[in-house]
């Protein structure tokens, strides 16, 4: 669903010409029905969140419509030592690092286009009766901290009061196994001719939170034989799992590795293994959550890193250390609100009066006071609903122009850090050298949707014996009960008659289109931005009803809240040998993130890695680049 120029300019007109507040903008755009929570407390808002209406239209005026905003006549209203564009993990971490290296007395301004801080690390709250449910609307957990986190990242966690040891202890890995629940597969009627639920998936998963000996999986042959597929397809899938061959004979190991790097997993299954289109459909969305693209968009070696079958008998070299860690290290470093828990603690570290308390545990249930984020007396100020449209070097620093409530403002910093989407930097910083602009534009972020649904109880999951569904062809490829984390006063639901948050993952992809990853991402972004909440809601309700209706679920009765976290610009681009020359990537990454005058570049994008630890490490690099300039 493409966005028309008329739709686009209407959005810009609402923001710029009318000068509406974010709430008025939502109401004018027809989204007022979403705001069932406290409008002054963003985590409680439902409806379309993530890249929410009002957060991106002016940026698109620069990027898509090539509008020329001329604000040279505007006065500079405020002066800071450092201006940071982007209040996500990287921007907040950069502010913490700047305090370390330059002093806590330095004046810092963080501006962000959203109505909440955290970037992709967003917190969702639901009130169900007397209970508050907390969910994660984006960046969800620390990825393999024992292997992947640098000393700098680990020290920052300690500085803000985070203990990964305690986080792991708060995660009850055996909760769902002890309930005799397993993973299962939802085969939808539209694509498989009938609705069928198959429980007892025995397969491993990348970034797995369930111990491998507690999967409650069935024998793989019995599991596959329950699929709604032709007998020949089921036997072929069983053979692939149980009796894999060296499908690339007579290639040498080096030749196999090169072939697996340069061919998609879909092509491997079709042309080398010989599966039918229907059998391949079973795997189609296995990689959606981890890579934000289907199996036609990942290499076979990346599929191997996701524990997908078919390459066990090829005598291949071991996986790289990081990939092996993602398979082996338990995925249990999780706040109930995902990495929003990290960003709230970063904000407490920078602006202590905004979040009461002093521990990791009490931060979870303390209500953050958004009115304290941007006070004049703060050495560090966090300004939301402020979309930057220009940053330019001057004789005495960097002048940053942003729009707030449709009105332009200018501030000056001695230095600036762009901790925002790197692909937008060529439009925001026009003096960026042309080759660097092209490198920055290459980081086309992958769109995806994290939806949280609050339900009155989870007895239907218990009746089906499943805590998490993989859906090969339905819109939402992953539907799961929330991670079992109890931290401080916040307790995960213990009984199936209690309310629960369902986490759902939707990735717009185009299987069989022969589009590159970047082309799919651009098309997916346009689709998400052109899709209404009503359309999302209907898709969510239809899928949940078909999945769970046979176990007594009634979407009209049992759903009490829906928050659609739409990330039109989601994961940082992951370079793949299918679409990129990997030999050139290190130089491209290095050149893309070079400072432009006194404007440094951060965000996980600048590492081309969609992880919290990458965002932190890139913030540290950017701060040190500026410090070296004096």
Features:
7-stranded mixed sheet, 630 residues, 17 strands, alpha/beta
Total strands: the figure is 17
Radius of gyration equals: 24 Å
Give the DSSP E fraction (strand runs of 2 or more residues): 15-25%
Strand order of the largest sheet: 1-16-12-15-14-13-6-7
So what's the overall shape? globular
Helix content: 25-40%
Average predicted local confidence, pLDDT? 91
Distance between the termini: 49 Å
Summarize the biggest pleated sheet.
8 strands, mixed
Helix/sheet category: alpha/beta
* Unreliable stretches covering 5 or more consecutive residues: 1-37
How does this structure look, described?
The structure is a single chain. This protein is of the alpha/beta class. The protein is 35% helix and 19% strand. It is built from 27 helices and 17 strands. Helix 4 links the parallel strand 2 and strand 3 (108-111). Helix 4 runs parallel beside helix 18 (340-350) and helix 4 (89-102) packs parallel to helix 27. Mean pLDDT is 91; it is low at 1-37.
Write a concise synopsis of the structure shown:
With 630 residues, this protein is of the alpha/beta class. The model is unreliable at 1-37 (pLDDT under 50).
Q: What is the secondary structure topology, with strand pairs?
A:
Layout lengths: L4 H13 L4 H7 L18 E4 L6 H7 L12 E10 L3 H14 L5 E4 L11 E6 L2 E6 L8 H4 L2 H9 L4 H7 L4 H4 L3 E6 L1 H4 L3 E4 L20 H6 L5 H12 L10 H10 L2 H9 L3 H5 L6 H4 L8 H6 L15 H8 L11 H11 L9 H6 L14 E4 L2 E9 L2 E8 L2 E12 L6 H4 L5 H8 L4 E10 L3 H6 L1 E5 L5 E6 L18 E7 L10 H13 L3 H16 L6 H4 E13 L13 H8 L6 E3 L10 H18 L1
Helix pairs in contact: 1-3, 4-18, 4-27, 21-26
């Amino acid at each position: 669903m493409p966005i028309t120029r008329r739709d686009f300019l209407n959005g810009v007109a609402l923001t710029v010409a009318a000068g509406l507040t974010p709430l008025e903008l939502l109401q004018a755009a027809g989204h007022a029905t979403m705001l069932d929570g406290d409008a002054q407390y963003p985590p409680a808002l439902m409806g379309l969140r993530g890249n929410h209406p009002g957060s991106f239209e002016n940026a698109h005026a620069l990027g898509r419509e090539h509008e020329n905003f001329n604000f040279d006549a505007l006065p500079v209203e405020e002066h800071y030592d450092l201006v940071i564009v982007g209040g996500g993990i990287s921007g907040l971490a950069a502010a913490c690092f700047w305090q370390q290296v330059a002093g806590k007395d330095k004046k810092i301004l963080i501006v962000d286009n959203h109505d909440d801080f955290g970037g992709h690390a967003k917190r969702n709250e639901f009130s169900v009766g007397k209970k508050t449910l907390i969910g994660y609307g984006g960046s969800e957990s620390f990825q393999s901290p024992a292997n992947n986190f640098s000393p700098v990242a680990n020290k920052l966690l300690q500085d803000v009061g985070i203990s990964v040891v305690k986080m792991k202890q708060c995660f009850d890995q055996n909760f769902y196994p002890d309930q005799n629940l397993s993973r299962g597969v939802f085969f939808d009627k539209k694509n498989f001719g009938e609705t069928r639920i198959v429980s007892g998936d025995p397969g491993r998963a990348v970034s797995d939170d369930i111990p491998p000996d507690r999967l409650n999986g069935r024998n793989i042959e019995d599991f596959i034989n329950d699929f709604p597929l032709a007998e020949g397809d089921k036997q072929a899938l069983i053979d692939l799992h149980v009796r894999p061959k060296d499908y690339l004979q007579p290639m040498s190991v080096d030749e196999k590795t090169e072939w697996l790097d340069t061919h998609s997993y879909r092509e491997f299954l079709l042309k080398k293994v010989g599966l039918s289109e229907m059998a391949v459909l079973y795997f189609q969305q296995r990689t959606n959550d981890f890579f934000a693209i289907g199996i036609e968009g990942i290499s076979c070696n990346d599929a191997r890193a996701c524990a997908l079958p078919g390459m066990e008998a090829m005598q291949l070299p071991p996986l790289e250390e990081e990939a092996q860690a993602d398979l082996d290290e338990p995925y249990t470093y999780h706040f109930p609100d995902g990495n929003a828990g990290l960003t709230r603690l970063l904000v407490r570290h920078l602006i202590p009066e905004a979040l009461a308390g002093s521990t990791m545990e009490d931060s979870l249930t303390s209500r953050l006071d958004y009115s304290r984020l941007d006070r004049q007396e703060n050495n560090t100020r966090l300004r939301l609903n402020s979309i930057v449209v220009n940053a330019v070097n001057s004789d005495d620093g960097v002048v940053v122009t942003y729009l707030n409530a449709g009105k332009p403002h200018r501030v000056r910093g001695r230095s600036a850090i762009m901790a925002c989407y790197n692909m937008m930097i060529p439009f925001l910083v026009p003096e960026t050298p042309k080759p660097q602009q092209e490198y920055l534009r290459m980081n086309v972020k992958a769109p995806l949707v994290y939806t949280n649904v609050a339900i009155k109880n989870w007895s239907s999951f218990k009746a089906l014996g499943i805590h998490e569904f993989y859906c090969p062809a339905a819109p939402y490829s992953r539907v799961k009960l929330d991670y079992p984390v109890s931290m401080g006063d916040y307790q995960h639901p213990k009984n199936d008659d209690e309310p629960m948050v369902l986490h759902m993952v939707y990735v717009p992809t185009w299987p069989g289109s022969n589009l590159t990853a970047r082309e799919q991402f651009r098309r997916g972004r346009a689709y998400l931005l052109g899709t209404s909440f009503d359309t999302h809601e209907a898709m969510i309700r239809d899928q949940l009803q078909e999945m769970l209706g046979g176990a007594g679920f009634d979407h009209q009765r049992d759903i009490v809240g829906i928050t659609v976290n739409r990330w039109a610009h989601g994961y940082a681009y992951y370079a793949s040998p299918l679409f990129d020359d990997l030999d050139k990537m290190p130089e491209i990454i290095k050149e893309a993130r070079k400072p432009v005058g006194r404007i440094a570049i951060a965000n996980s994008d600048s590492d081309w890695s969609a992880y919290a630890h990458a965002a932190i490490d890139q913030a540290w690099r950017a701060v040190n680049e500026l410090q070296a300039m004096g």
